[in-house]
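note to self — DONT lose this again. spent like an hour looking for the file last time. sequence + predicted structure for the chain T wanted, 313 res
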Amino acid sequence: MKCLSLKRDGFTLIELLVVISIISLLSTVVLSSLKTARSKAVDTAIKTELINLRSQGAIYHALPAGYTGLCTDGVVQKALTFAASSTNSNIQINTTGGLNLVTCNSTTNGFAIQAPFKTDPSKFFCVDFNSSAIETSQSFTDGSTVVCGTVVVSGPGSQTRILAGTITDDASFGTVAWSNPGNAMSSDNVYATVVLAAENSHRLKATDFGFSIPAGATIKGIITEMKAKTLSGNVSFGYGRVKNGITGGVGGAGFSTTENYISLGSSSYLWNTTWTPSDINNSGFGFYVYTNNLSTDTVYIDHIRITVYYDVP
């Protein structure tokens, strides 16, 4: 009696076709994921390049011609070329922005640089002289645009403002007035000063920084930096927020004889209150400081700047 063998040699044509289809599908998925990962890596590299250009802008800020010429600077051109070649874009100087364009605008008083994303060319990463570094869908409208657009895409953002519209001596507190309070508007080694003799100064109040936080954003934190020094270093200070023109105390610290930026707050600190974009954008938003000591001393404040951190839903 013969037994029938159930052993098969190889695969049927249908089985082979199924295996080939699965392999092809998996290959497509893997290749697509690799392409997306590479594009995101390019976006990250472009962000880093543009953020680093803000330090180059600081060099030009100190020159008599201001930021004029920044866009043709060798370091800037290298970064622009990298961004353009990475996104198949063209470079434009002092003109309108748009799709497939890496644009750099600079004037005596400001600069802004934007480049499209590899993952989505309709959106841009932008930096400007205010230390803004944001993702935006708003391209430059003309060659004199030196501020990043306010139409921010979803995700975290920050804006820094280095110029207060108003700095005043607020006599509602303390006994000694500040001399030349307006000198604290810019970092130029020209100072607002106060001479103390065991007494408190008035408040030095800086407001109207010109923020443009997007509507609907959630404010995450605020950092205020004050470039200051004293003769002896024996002076402490109190500081606080100004919200819609109303002052509120926050904390205190001390000065040094070495001039440097004193950083107050953090990217997650809200200065003991809650904030909306309209609060920050209001001309009555700002910072105040007053000084006190137990002996005679002089306080010098050169500059006050504020950075606001936020998330856009």
